[in-house]
Amino acid sequence: MQIHDAEERGKAQEAGGGLALAQWENLIPRPSSRFYRVRCISCGGEQIIFSHTSHEIKCRTCGEVLAEPTGGKAEIKGAIVAVLG
Ligand SMILES: [Zn+2]
Rounded distance, CA 26 to CA 44, Å? Predict the structure, then answer.
């Protein structure tokens, strides 16, 4: 019963849009698969890397490993300079 009420309130906020919607989205936990713009710590080159890549990503320029798969979210070795949707 309480859960149902909360859902109804959520829909009402969504309909309101704007700030309320942004706040609501922050409350929803979800697997965050994203793309990162990663800077190679070795040569400074930047590359787009999928956060949940299933294979090793190496720098196009120097071959430095930028991301290693872990089974879930990849381990990013370089510096993340931007997170892309
Ligand atoms: Zn590099």
Answer: 33
Range of the domain at 12: 2-84
The torsion defined by the Cα of 46, 52, 58 and 64, in degrees rounded to 10, comes to 80
Does the structure show a pLDDT above 60 at 6? no
The separation between CA 35 and the C-alpha centre of its own chain, rounded to angstroms, equals 6
pTM above 0.90, yes or no: no
Return the CATH number at 74: 2.20.25.100
How far apart are the CA of 81 and the centre of ligand 1, in A?
A: 14
Q: What is the domain count for the chain?
A: 1
Whether pLDDT at 27 is above 90: no
Cα of 26 from ligand 1 centre, angstroms:
34
H/E run at residue 79: strand 79-84
CA 41 to centroid of ligand 1, rounded, Å: 7
